[in-house]
Amino acid sequence: MSNAQAKCERTGKVIPLSEGAYVASPGTGEWAFVATDAPEQPSDYSVAVASLSKSPEALVDWIAHLNQKSWFDPKKLADFFTRFRKQNNLFHAL
Question: What pTM, to 2 d.p., does this model score?
Answer without folding.
Answer: 0.90
